[in-house]
Design a protein that fits this description.
Blueprint (H helix, E strand, L loop, with lengths): L1 E5 L3 H12 L1 H8 L4 E6 L15 E3 L3 H4 L6 E4 L6 H11 L3 E4 L2 H17 L4 E2 L10 H8 L5 E7 L2 H13 L3 H10 L8 H4 L2 H15 L9 E2 L7 H10 L1 E12 L2 E12 L11 E8 L3 E8 L3 H17 L24 E11 L4 H11 L4 E8 L5 E8 L2 E2 H12 L9 E5 L4
Parallel strand pairs: 1-2, 1-4, 2-3, 4-5, 5-6, 8-10
Antiparallel strand pairs: 7-9, 7-11, 9-10, 11-12, 13-15, 13-16, 13-17, 14-15
Helix pairs in contact: 1-12, 4-5, 5-10, 7-8, 13-14
Length: 425
């Protein structure tokens, strides 16, 4: 099996290194030799993390997708413009494609999967979600006997590193973000990570495979972590919760709910105790029950492991291309954000005077919202206090109506904070 690689950066270089050091084991498992024929790079003179002995280098990406001997193209350059164009060319040239590009699959996966099927080839993307964790294979193969009810994951290592540092060391968001950038966990422009876009790309892919529906990145409700305060983390801890940046996909009565946002998770849940840059995904199937998958969500060789796993699948299935062609996917009916039902955490900054808490609970009750737990703390000499409340399960639109009514009172001295709670039962 001869392959061509588009990009020899972190992941591409990792693929070369892993293929080299584990050559014998990989060949044994797939029953065939895998050789790199050609790789496209931006600059031939650039220093690389891998040896380039034994295969041709080119600065022209078309040399890879048009190469007559290349059977599989590894798209490892990222982005959704050049990568999409090259992927389409490779598929039209009857070449299988393996990619680690979550944005490409989340945004253009439906058309690329159809193009692959039309040309009797495959496009595989295990490495696009959760790095070295074989989560897509687990959903598509290991749990194939199950109806999947829930997928919930910490699927962005940068966000998880920030939330962990804020929890364990009481640090401010901006302070931890600067360290994440210095350590290379976050880009100079960290928007995709901290605003949840990266996680939303991955969640769209997970939901598609879990529920057998078309990819729909636009349907993922997305909220970042920049507005989470150390005060929220401290109060959540007192109430028995840990705040994580969570991706959640549920199928409820035939409708799908997909969202990424800061989330309170009970401390006793394993997912709540995934720290640092690690990823983890919880899947609940109606036969097996809950299963948890944990591991590195990024990194050169961890992601390369997932790329090569797809490559081995292709080699082993060379004479049965239909096995790897995407089946017909259904169009999904998504639950609108306002109609999502959830438990909520509220933090209200209010004047600390008699009757305020009673008035707030009265407003909540008027909207059929009950209080499950409450914490009140005086925070300054001006008699302002934090009132933190965990509610019962309620529609988001009813919660918002109650918050708007509370916010209008003159005893409220700050913006009401609201964060969903997931018990993961």
């Amino acid at each position: 099996m001869k392959i061509g690689i588009l990009g020899l950066g972190t992941v591409g270089g990792g693929v070369v290194n892993v293929l080299s050091k584990n050559h014998q084991e990989i060949s044994r498992r797939c029953g065939s030799d895998i050789s790199i024929e050609i790789a496209a790079v931006k600059d031939l003179k650039q220093k690389r993390i891998c040896s380039t002995d034994g295969f041709k280098l080119t600065e022209n990406s078309n040399d890879v997708v048009n190469h007559p001997d290349v059977e599989v193209v590894l798209e490892l350059i990222g982005g959704t413009s050049i990568a999409k164009d090259l992927t389409e060319k490779a598929l039209k040239n009857k070449k299988h494609v393996i990619t680690a590009n979550k944005a490409l699959i989340a945004k253009h996966g439906n058309e690329l999967l159809k193009l692959a099927k039309d040309n009797s080839v495959s496009i595989l993307f295990e490495a696009s979600v959760a790095g070295g964790i074989p989560i897509l294979k687990s959903l598509g193969q290991g749990l194939t006997a199950n109806k999947i009810d829930l997928v919930a994951g910490i699927i962005n290592g940068t966000g998880n590193f920030i939330m962990t540092e804020m929890k364990e060391k009481g640090r401010d968001f901006d302070d931890v973000l600067k360290e994440a950038q210095a350590l290379g966990y976050a880009e100079a422009d960290p928007t995709f990570d901290i605003e949840g876009i990266d996680a939303a790309h991955k969640l769209a892919i997970l939901a598609s495979i879990a529920f057998g529906v078309e990819l729909n990145f636009e349907a993922v409700s997305t909220e970042g972590i920049s507005q989470v305060d150390p005060e929220d983390i401290s109060i959540a801890d007192e109430l028995g919760y840990i705040i994580k940046h969570l991706g959640v996909a549920k199928k409820i009565d035939g409708r799908i709910d997909t969202r990424v946002h800061p989330t309170l998770i009970p401390k006793k849940r394993l997912l709540a105790n995934v720290n640092g840059v690690m990823n983890a995904v919880l899947i609940k199937g109606n036969a097996v029950g809950p299963t948890l998958y944990y591991g590195p969500g990024a990194g050169d060789e961890a992601t390369a492991s997932a790329v090569i796993a797809d490559l081995v699948d292709l080699v082993k299935g060379t004479h049965s291309n239909d096995e790897f062609c995407w089946k017909q996917l259904e169009k999904a009916n998504y639950i609108e954000k306002d109609n999502v039902e959830s438990i909520f955490y509220l933090r209200i900054l209010a004047s600390d005077k008699p009757g305020v808490l009673a008035d707030i609970t009265s407003i909540l009750a008027k909207h059929n919202i009950s209080v499950e737990s409450v914490v009140q703390k005086q925070i300054d000499a001006d008699n302002n206090a934090h009132i933190a409340i965990i509610t019962n399960k309620i529609l988001t639109k009813e919660m918002n109506k109650a918050i708007n009514e509370i916010q209008a009172h003159d005893y409220i001295t700050g913006t009401v904070k609201i964060i969903p709670v997931e018990t993961l039962d």
